[in-house]
Amino acid sequence: MDAALGLAGRGVGRTAPNPNVGCVLVREGRVVGRGWTQAGGRPHAEAMALAQAGDAARGATAYVTLEPCAHVSPRGPACTDLLIAAGIARIVAAMGDPDPRTDGLGFARARAAGIAVTTGVREAAARAMIAGFLTRRAQGRPFVTLKLATSLDGRIARPDGESRWITGPQARAHAHLARSRHEAILVGRGTLETDAPRLDVRLPGLEDRAPRRILLSRSPEPGWETIASPHAIADLTGIDRLMVEGGARTASAFLATDLVDQLLLYRAPILIGEGHPALHAIGLTALAQAHGRWRLADSRMLGSDRMEVYERN
Q1: pLDDT, tens only, 33-57
Q2: Distance between alpha carbon 271 and the CA centroid of its chain, in Å?
Q3: DSSP character for 163?
Q4: Under the phi-then-psi rule, with left for phi > 0, alpha for psi from -120 to 50, and beta for the rest, what region is 160?
Q5: Low-confidence residues of the chain, pLDDT below 70?
Q6: 221 flagged as catalytic
């Protein structure tokens, strides 16, 4: 299942509106097929793995990170039917699919065809892997990552606006990798006018993964998709994972409206003193409201900078 989760990770930020799924087919202790959801949502992971395995799929076990789909789409057949037709003997799935067109039907159809089904293997990791899909299903909006790069004293720029570069090259490379795992990036009008950001992915081999560029502004801007308020992210089609990159007013607006699911923080070992703070008011009326909100999910050094990821409790 860990191998299947690794394959699913290849599709993060690339498969909306479909979930990014991984599949590994094993027969007699040997991997005979691997697959992951391709860009745009098709082919599905199971279809890719079955095509690779061919006749070797008969009698194999399919390890999948999500319940195989049970509905036929104009874009392709139901994966449950493909697994049955291929002669799969067992399905091991991390979790069920909340899509009402499948939700338990895939497992039921497989069992009715004589396939042994095991569920709940590495479910927490699988849920984290498709957080964008699940957030869209449950809340009708994309999963939102707020990215901030600050000094030790919480500044994102000097008083004159100079901000390049607070963090070092390793942290900036990691931020570009994070960009490649989101369908879109959002900035505010102030960042657009001050930095004229490209918001592309400048990593060898990942240049084609540049996300869509969204501007938070009441005035349209040529070459940008524009929304007037944070809540309008719900209307962005084909986007299940959104990164908010700044600046302070925009970051604060998303926090104040309770629309941030993940914090991606880069802290450089520098002090700036007087300068631009990372955040403005975020709607707190008492200090107690700030506690218990976030849990540390990851922390590591990137060169001399500290990267931390916090998830909502």
Answers
A1: 999 999 999 999 999 999 999 999 9
A2: 32
A3: -
A4: alpha
A5: none
A6: no
Amino acid symbol at 219: S
Helix (H) or strand (E) holding 307: strand 305-312
SS3 state at 235? helix
Q: Which residue has the tokens 């994102």?
A: 156
d(CA 230, CA 55): 50
- Set 28, 46, 183, 245: catalytic member: 46
Is there a cis peptide before residue 17, judged by omega within 30 degrees of 0?
A: yes
CA–CA gap between residue 149 and residue 151 (Å, rounded):
7
Q: Are strands 61-64 and 90-93 parallel, antiparallel or unpaired?
A: parallel
Structure tokens at 159: 């008083």
pTM: 0.92
Query: Residue 112: is it exposed, middle or buried by C-beta count within 10 angstroms (0-12/13-18/19+)?
Result: exposed
Token duo for residue 253? 């607006």
Residue 165 is predicted with a pLDDT of 87
Residue-wise pLDDT tens digits, 267-295: 999 999 999 999 999 998 999 999 999 99
Residue 293's alpha-carbon distances to 18, 75, 84, 282, 287, in angstroms, are 29, 41, 44, 13, 12
